[in-house]
Specification:
This protein is an alpha/beta fold and 184 residues long. It is built from 7 helices and 5 strands, in the order αβαβααβαβαβα. Helix 1 runs parallel beside helix 7 and helix 5 runs parallel beside helix 6. The radius of gyration is 17 Å and the shape is globular. The two termini are 27 Å apart.
């Protein structure tokens, strides 16, 4: 509920200095049983979300989708059949790997060593992605996902300056603002 306000706050605090992408794992694309969920459709839905936010005065630079699954994912979801073209052992883009962040940096022609990377998400994988990219991860926990919250608390104990937990998206944005003010 606070994403629009949070995005507007980022614009106010950092006009023309912030690059924002939605990066999303969409393993459903790899599942044959979900005939209507194609990679093209997943990208179109993400693009529509970007446009919806833009119309509301909040801006994203784009959306990057990973449609892949690894063999372990396939093994743990035997109730489905999978499209082999989307099953990869070493997919660079499936979070917690950093391929989608690398793609975003490339699209904006940004040097990773000179860029502060923040990943705001609702899963432990989002936080791990940030850490793997040398950035800061901020969890906005979902009520029904206590497991991700507990795992993120453990990550925070090990990485107190790189992992944060926010109440909501505005809190996550405020964390970004605070980190930038102290020069992280």
């Amino acid at each position: 509920p606070t994403v629009l306000d949070g995005m507007r706050l980022l614009d106010k605090e950092f006009p023309d200095q912030v690059c924002r992408f939605v990066i999303t794992n969409q393993p459903g694309v790899a599942i044959n049983d979900f005939k209507r969920l194609t990679l093209k459709r997943a990208k179109k839905v993400c693009q529509e979300i970007v446009y919806m936010f833009k119309r509301a005065g909040a801006y994203f630079d784009g959306c990057i989708v990973c449609p892949h699954v690894n063999p372990e994912y396939v093994e743990s979801h035997k109730e489905y059949s999978f499209d082999k073209q989307f099953v990869h052992q070493n997919c660079d883009c499936f979070k917690p790997n950093t391929g989608m962040i690398e793609e975003a940096l490339e699209k904006k022609k940004l040097d990773k060593t000179k860029t502060h990377i923040y990943v705001i998400g609702n899963r432990e994988n989002d936080i791990l992605t940030a850490l793997n990219a040398g950035g800061i991860g901020i969890l906005v926990p979902l009520e029904h996902n206590a497991n991700d919250l507990e795992k993120t608390k453990e990550l925070k104990e090990k990485n107190p300056d790189k992992v944060f937990i926010a109440k909501d998206f505005i809190g996550a944005v405020q964390c970004v603002i605070d980190q930038e003010k102290v020069g992280k």
